[in-house]
Amino acid sequence: MNNIVLRGLLSLLGLFGLWQLAVVGLHIPAYLLPAPLQVFASAWLNKTLLLQELWPTFLEVLIGLGASIIWGMMVAIAMGLFRPVRFWLLPLIIASQAMPTFAFAPLLILWLGYGIGSKIAIIMVVLFFPITAAFYEGIKQVPTVWLDLAFLAGASRWRTMRYISLPAALPALASGLKVAAVWAPMAAVIGEWVGASQGLGFLLLNAQTRLDMPLMFATLLVLVGFSLLLFYIIEHSLKRMIPWQKQD
Amino acid sequence: MKRISLFILLMIQSFSVQGLTKVNLALDWYINPDHAPILIAEQQGYFKAQGLQVTLLSPVQSTESAQLVATGQADLAIDYQPSLLMEMAAGLPLIWVGTLVNHPLNCVAVLKDSSIQTLRDLKGHSIGVSASPSSELLLNTMLDYQHVSLGEVKQIGMQMDLSQALLAKKVDAIEGMMRNVEPVQLQSMGYATRLFFPEDNGVPTYDELVIVANKNKVNRAVIKRFNAALAEAVIYLKAHPESSWQQIAGAYPSEMAPSAQITSANKAIWLATIGYFSANPGQLNAVYYNRFMNFMWKKGLLKQPISIEQYQGFDTIIGHS
After folding, report:
1. pLDDT digits (tens, 9 = 90+) for B160-183
2. Do B168 and A45 touch (CB under 8 A)?
3. How far is CA A145 from the centre of its chain?
4. pLDDT tens, B183-192?
5. Chain A neighbours among B 104-143 (CB < 8 Å)?
6. Distance, in angstroms, between B165 CA and closest chain A CA?
7. Which of B289, B109, B285, B135 is nearest to B197 (CA)?
8. Domains along chain B with CATH numbers
9. Would you call B59 an interface residue with chain A, using a CB distance cutoff of 8 Å?
10. What predicted TM-score, i.e. pTM, was given to this entire model?
11. Residue B153 three-state SS
């Protein structure tokens, strides 16, 4: 863990160094690409604003991610248990992922309003697939020998799912959750970008419209930091929940 | 059935807060200096004095504000006159009920230090165009007026990065800027621009920002009170440009005054916009209206002409819905 943080910090530092050199050396104007020092200065100057706009985005992500996990797991289990569900739902799930969220998001906002509801719906549309697909793959790939053993022991379909397939599929679910954790803040921002008056997405839009590029990049930094934090929290808690999973 | 619905309507109205009539107004974009009279009417209590409780909705895209009114989700919306005419010709149940800005704001801009002194100099150059049919019409008319054929310029469609594309010299000119917004903002950042106006180049003058209602649900008494409050707000704005800005920056900090740079740009835009607001929001100039509507019709943007009576919703017989 410490090692990963250290490596991450070092590679970020290197990136910022190159970026600063490029902007200063090539005389890139701030409206195209602000220098990292400008961005940090803006972040410090606007720290209250950034924290204040992080809060609504944080809430949307928390609720949206939670709802996606519950919903995604339920659908994956249903698909594992019942063949008709699998048969009818799988094409729909794939179709839902083929739709460009940016085209679909404005409609969701028109249907559900400008509040938190539409943002949660957009997060669920985006996250549903990685979670459901990963978990369902995990359920599908349980070794047949285990299932045969359960069958010979006279276990019901539900008990086989509960005691054999679900635990066996947890590592697969974990990789889906990690993808979801990184995508969640981005999905929230899409929702705020197309219709909101608060949140990091709205701040991004406002800064972009008024050409405040240092603030726009500062907002992006906060967003990236939030995604990373979410990723590590999820990874850390998953390791505790699935101690038998291979460590990398 | 009609009696029952009338009864329910009266019940709803009598239950509204403090006897105020509720009005949902869909803006064309999030709150910005173009909405000054509405914001001031709210903050100064002019709406309340007229018995109105106005709720602002900020839709996703400017085209959606009109859709919200057409589908009955909002009572009023901010729209652009060229868009409104096209929406009406396409059959949306909308009518004009007021004017916020009775003047074109659209313009073509080049950087002041560029070699382009007149529109004719655009020959052989590239123009960034905001993607909307009316923008395209205005630009083509202006070029045509200056005897520049469409083949002699390169038009590039873009969404939002017009100013950046101009500054970065990715295009030589841009169309679709609002003269009270982007050029003012660029000026405040130290970049001077040269502007060309549609009304000087063959486009009849028109109302950039108008207020629309649903023709089947319009409440004329409410509209009259709404426009009266706006007129009062415009008088206040013209008398107190500076203090009205302070007031609104304080009331809407996350839209108007989040960071130092956005705040100073918005203040400059606020001061530059006040002069464009219509002093008589409820007034429609028939000569200007007919000239502009005929222009759009002849250019093929309207399927059929829209009479001034239709535009105001006075063509439908009352009781025949």
Report:
1. 678 888 998 889 999 988 999 999
2. no
3. 35
4. 999 998 889 9
5. none
6. 9
7. B109
8. 17-103+207-312 (3.40.190.10), 106-200 (3.40.190.10)
9. yes
10. 0.82
11. coil
